[in-house]
Specification:
Layout (H helix, E strand, L loop, with lengths): L6 E9 L1 H8 L3 H9 L3 E6 L5 E6 L4 E6 L5 E4 L5 E9 L2 E8 L2 E10 L2 E8 L2 E9 L2
Antiparallel strand pairs: 1-2, 1-10, 2-3, 3-4, 5-6, 6-7, 7-8, 8-9, 9-10
Helix pairs in contact: 1-2
């Protein structure tokens, strides 16, 4: 059920994100900005079943639109060109990105009314937590 993710989510914490960005190959300058940015995440679903994930911050706004289980090309906030597929597994929204022989995935789930995003690259895990904006 993607519907439970729908809404505007405000980031309240970000743990280990610098290590995660390092692990996926993000340069120092971009990491500095990434670490200071607390984006809002806006999740919506249209009547054709397309899911839209929009990350909005003063620094940059990125948006992806996709259908579950259908691969698509994504340009990430740090300008990687990835082949991405998003699936729903055990109530989690799982986004898998592959590029240059590497793969990372982001698992988003709702826990105690919060949206928790786990960014996973090998054994490096960053956890970013969001609350629904009132």
């Amino acid at each position: 059920m993607v519907e439970k993710f729908v809404g505007t989510w405000k980031m309240i914490s970000s743990d280990n994100f610098d290590d995660y960005m390092k692990a996926i190959g993000v340069g120092f300058a971009t990491r500095q900005v990434g670490n200071r940015t607390k984006p809002n995440l806006v999740v919506s679903v249209d009547d054709q079943g397309f899911v839209c994930l929009k990350s909005q911050s003063t620094f940059k706004t990125t948006e992806i639109k996709f259908k579950l289980n259908e691969p698509f090309e994504e340009t990430t906030a740090d300008d990687r060109k990835t082949k991405t597929v998003v699936t729903l597994e055990n109530g989690k929204l799982v986004q898998k990105q592959s590029w240059d022989g590497k793969e990372t995935h982001i698992e988003r789930e709702i826990e105690d009314g919060k949206l928790v995003a786990k960014c996973i690259m090998g054994d490096v895990i960053a956890v970013r937590t969001y609350v629904m904006e009132a």
